[in-house]
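Section 3.1: Structural characterization of target chains.
Under the original work plan, the team committed to producing a structural model for every single-chain target entering the pipeline before any wet-lab resources were allocated. The record below documents one such target. The sequence was received from the expression subgroup and is listed exactly as submitted; it comprises 104 residues.
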Amino acid sequence: MSFPFDKIGVSKLALRKSLNSEDLIIEWLNLLPNGQIIGSHHVQDDVRQWIYRTYQKRVNADTLARKFRGLRANNIEKLENAGLKLIDNGTLHGENSWILKRSM
């Protein structure tokens, strides 16, 4: 399932001067419905397109993948503070996948 770019509103962080990739990934995750399955390609493709369409900022897909890995492995409290949890869903269609759960 592709990200519904036509259904997004103005970002809460749009007025920020400095854009942090991890914060942008978390903001994108907050736009997704609870229970959404997220694959590696969503982070590399959909997040990158969303950042460009929202902030007119280009971000390397590998950078986003690395930051997403860091959030999952080393910065879980940042996800939890945002009310999010990623549950490993194993390999789906040849790529790693996770289920997005909201804790609030």
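Helices lie at 21-31, 40-55, 61-73, 76-81.
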